[in-house]
Fold this protein.
Amino acid sequence: MTFIRPLIFLAATIIVASACTRQQSPAPEKGVSFALNQYRKQHIDSIQYQIELDIPAGKSGQISGKEIVTFHLNAVDSALVLDFNVDASALQEVRVGGKKVDYQFVNEHIVIDSKHLSKGKNEVGIDFVAGDQSLNRSDDYLYTLFVPDRASTCFPLFDQPNLKASYQLTLKTPEGWEAVSNGKLNAKTVENGKSVYQFGKTKPVSSYLFAFAAGKFFKETRTMDGREMTMYYRETDTTKVNRNRDDVFQLHAKSLAWLEEYTNIDYPFGKFDFVLLPSFQYGGMEHPGAIFYNEPALFLDENASVNRRMARASVIAHESAHMWFGDLVTMDWFNDVWLKEVFANFMAAKIVHPSFPEINHELRFLLAHYPNAYEVDRTAGTNPILQQLGNLKNAGTLYGAIIYMKAPIVMRQLERKIGEELMRESLREYLKTYSFGNARWDDLIGIIDKRSPEDITTWSNVWVKTPGMPEYGIEAGKLVQLKDSVSGRVWEQPLVLKTMQNGQLVFPNNDGTGYGYFKMDTASKAWFFAQYGNAKVSDPVFKGAMLVNSWEGLLRGDGPGPEKLVNSILNALPKEQNPLLVDYLLGNLQTDWWAFLNADQRAAYQARVEGEIWQLLNSTRDKGIQTSYFRAFKALALTDDGWQKMHGLWTGKLEVKGLVLSEEDKISLAYELALKGKGDGKAILNTQLNATKNPDRKARMQFVIPALSASEAERDAFFETLKKEENREKEAWVLDALTYLHHPLREQSALKYLRPSLDLLQEIQLTGDIFFPTRWLHNTFAGHSSPEAARIAQTFLKEHPDYPYFLKNKILQATDLLDRSVKLSATYGQKEHSPALSQQ
Ligand SMILES: [Zn+2]
């Protein structure tokens, strides 16, 4: 692959540490450019880091660090560039071979003149103050999250995935703190009233996979299949922990055993522990030997649905699969980050599915992937699976639904094309060939192409290297590809359609495996909804596939219109017993409700929607379905009667048989009550705050409450605080707050936050976690459906014609639904105007 983006060397602010300024090459730009990455890969190897960090109690004291980096250089024709994305003042001393040397600190890099270096082995010692940015510090614990290029925000290193290194970490922590890292704990001693944890050398790992956590944790060690595993966690509810811990250990053991068998390679990293963190940014992160998880995803509530249980098994299998796919064999450059994600998902599905025979996995795959992939792929801001990346600092922007949702669909198509056997054999060869090294997608395609009679390279060029989704229509009873954004592009995939009544009714993509928009005629759609739940419309996958077609139709102006769809969904729900389909129907109902219906239309349906969902909530016996109805009721209820019901559930005076409410549920009920009450929210929120026992949840509530205030001035003041980086540290909290700040019921008053939120985006990308820019935009715009809101985003893009390509795409993605809503309200508004639609 060639990179067309020119390398621009930014005007550098050079801080000269001495009189010696002999400069050998242009100053490196901020971040790790592709050129720097290539240069270092060619010249540096055998890297080892010895790092020592002294962590004080509390969340703000300075963490002092010492480090020795040893490596081989195969040439000394240029200065050495280490990455350290912290203020110059954090750098105290640099030594080469034990001798203090001059250096330059430029654009977040330490640059050491080549005169200090030698061909062969070198040793650089650095004293520094560790940067806080990716340490996620709280008063009594901290944890790292260094993906994709954030290790250099903490300590100096070569922060790129293809320079794998061995790490040897020593942590000094307050007494009473636990500590865990990738390496095995060799010794724990006490020195000057502090605990000293010495971890052993790791196997070669990429910098984004290096990790540690320290603080007040509970821990439990088990031996599973002869392998010792320690779980670190923060949850204080012992009943909850007891209910879940056996499952959590067993799911790990099972995943590892399955993967060893499939890959024919033993677990590669020796020691295996995992750490459960409240409000962790992702479901999990695959640090070898020390996987981090979001605690609530693993410690489930008593009433957890089968979906939640499978999601838990899946995230554990996903992170375990990464030990091979991503950790043992790693992408060469972050543009191939999708590959490790798709394999982790692909393996997780194979591992987890057989344990949940009660779930229709075809339906689940359909509903979990296709709608989410379309949500991005139908927008003007979509991207190919394999993207270009000129500088690692932009790696975060590569992540999104195309990687997580479309890529698994494409990978499943590949396996169907070449067969499971050839797939497994190719993957075994790939893992074996590149063990403890790096590889690209094209390396795998090469291995498959060599074994398969099919032309996999051409197929890969369309599905993996170009963006967008195909559109199909029916002509003369056959499915045909409609206009494509790229002329001449052929989306090779097997497609099916089902006909009824002598071809009068046509149902394209009835097995739900085809990827694209399948346009249906009005009569077939009407028949489908009218017959929903009857003998001819009972197959779950068929129902799912047609519902997806209908939703995509609504968004493209092909109907059914928003009111008709609300009506159809309300008619379908009582006939639906499949939890996945109930969930999908309720999801569409809510999006339709808030994004496409105006206030008058909602008012006309309000009592009926609440009444029917309340009735279904009370009559269902399936726990998963009940939870879905509870969530929908909570989100949609707005009448006095609905508010009273929520209030009754919250106080416990009203009970729904079978529904157990967790502390989280109570908190979210209190939020909705405050949002929808007439000014009496403060007391409810206060009562809930006092009743909340878990300290992490309590702190999160304290943060979110101002965003719910009935006073616009207070909400404005809260929004102002988000402009400061330190107030955005707990990103999960910020996202919660944004949801309420921009709730459709407060859309008007929130319009003024849109422009400043866009203005902050570049800073957010620099300071936040990799998913944060997307989520920030999504939670900001999801509550809006007004032309004013759409105009604010359009104006912003117009005023910034040179806005970074990736971020511009994220804006286009986040505002797609808004734009469609504005555009379609005219189209549908004329066809539909009253709730007098049939209730069948
Ligand atoms: Zn992953």
